[in-house]
Amino acid sequence: MADPQVLWTLAVFFGRLSLQAFGGVNVALGSMQRFFVVEQQWLGAAEFAELFALAQTAPGPNVIVVTLLGWRVAGLAGALVSTLAMLLPAALLVYLCACTLVRGRQQQLVKALLAALAPATVGLLLASGGILARSSNHGLSGWVLTLVTAVVALSCRAHPLWLIAVGGLAGLLAGHA
Amino acid sequence: MAAPDAGMLFVQFAKVGLSGFGGCLPWAQRALVDKLRWLDQKTFTELLGIAQVLPGPNVCNLALIVGTQFAGWRGAAAALGGLLCAPCLIVLALGAAYAHFGHQPQVHAALSGMASVGAGLLLASALSLLRGLSGRRADVLLAMAACAALGVLGWSLWMVLAVLVPAALALHAYTGRRDG
C-alpha cells in the first residue's frame, strides 16, 4: 500500500499543475523534473528522462507520462491519483467553458489569448527540452545523440518512434563499446 | 448525420488515442474532420483554439469540448475516457517491464540512448515553434525570457505565465494599435 502522504503530495502537485499547464503537458515537463528530481528526490535525473522516453514510445496523449511517473513513485494508487489530479481540475474548467460556448463568438478573444500565450509556452517548452537533455546526457555521446535527433527531427518528418528506436540501438552500441 | 452519442464518442476517441504516437492532435483532426465528418475544418480549428487556450493536455481538452458539444457531460466523460483508457494501461505495462528489466546493463544502455533522443525530440518541437514566432522579434525575446525564467532562475510555471502573458498581451495591443 502506498504511503498516503506521498499520494497526497502527488495529488496536490499535479492538481495545481493541471491548472497551470497552458500549451500542453510537455510545456510542464521542466516543472515536473524539478519537483520529482530536485525537490522530492523521488527519482534520479536519468531515471526521469528514461521514463519520459518510455512514455513517448506508448501511443496516446502526452499526459500518460504523468501516469508513469505516479506509478513509479507510488504504484497503481500513485498512477491513478496523479492521472486524475492532472486531468480533473482542467477538465472541469474546460467542461464549464464548453457548456457556455457559443460557436463563432469567442474567435477574437481566443486568437488574442493564443498569441499572448505562445511566446511563454514556447520558451517553457525550450527550457523543458534543455532540462531533459541535461538529465539524460552524462557524456559527449549522449549530447551528440540529442543534437543529431533535434536536427533530424527539424529537417525531415521522421516518425518519432523510429528516432527513439534508433536511440535505443545507439545506446546499446555505445554501452558495449 | 445524427450527432454521435456517448458510446460512439468513446469508441472513436479510443481509436484516436491508440493511433497517436508523441501527440494525438493530427489523428484527432483526421478522424473528426476527414473520416467521420463530425466537424468541418473551420469548426475543428475553432474548437482546437479554445482547447489550446485553456490549461490542461490539449488533445484531452479537445475531446472534452467535442464530447460536451455532442452529448453533454456524458459525452465529455466518454470522449476523455476513450482517449486515455488504453494508453494508460499500455504505459503501465511498459512501466512494469521497465521495473523488471531496467536494471540489466543492456536495457539500461538502450534506455539511456532513448532518453537522449527523447530530449532531442522535445528540443526540436520547441525550436520549430520558435521558428514560427520568428516573424515577431519581441515574441522571440519573450520566449527567451520564459526559457531563462524556468531553466536558469527556476521560476514556477504560474510565475512565468503571470509575468509574460500580460506582457505579451500589452505588447500585442500596443503594436496592433500602432500598425492598425
TrEMBL record, chain A:
It comes from the Bacteria. It is found in: Cell membrane. It is a multi-pass membrane protein. The chain crosses the membrane at residues 6-30, 77-102, 109-131, 143-174. Its main location: membrane. The keyword Transmembrane helix applies. GO terms for cellular component: plasma membrane. The keyword Transcription does not apply. Keywords: Cell membrane, Membrane, Transmembrane, Transmembrane helix. One of its GO terms (molecular function) is chromate transmembrane transporter activity. PANTHER family: CHROMATE TRANSPORT PROTEIN-RELATED, CHROMATE TRANSPORTER. Belongs to the chromate ion transporter (CHR) (TC 2.A.51) family. This is Chromate transporter. It comes from Crenobacter caeni.
From TrEMBL, chain B:
Keywords: Cell membrane, Membrane, Transmembrane, Transmembrane helix. The keyword ATP-binding does not apply. It holds the Pfam family Chromate_transp. Its main location: membrane. It is found in: Cell membrane. InterPro entries: CHR_Transporter, Chromate_transpt. One of its GO terms (molecular function) is chromate transmembrane transporter activity. The chain crosses the membrane at residues 6-28, 77-101, 107-129, 141-174. One of its GO terms (cellular component) is plasma membrane. It is a multi-pass membrane protein. Belongs to the chromate ion transporter (CHR) (TC 2.A.51) family. This is Chromate transporter. It comes from Crenobacter caeni. The lineage of its organism: Bacteria, Pseudomonadati, Pseudomonadota, Betaproteobacteria, Neisseriales.
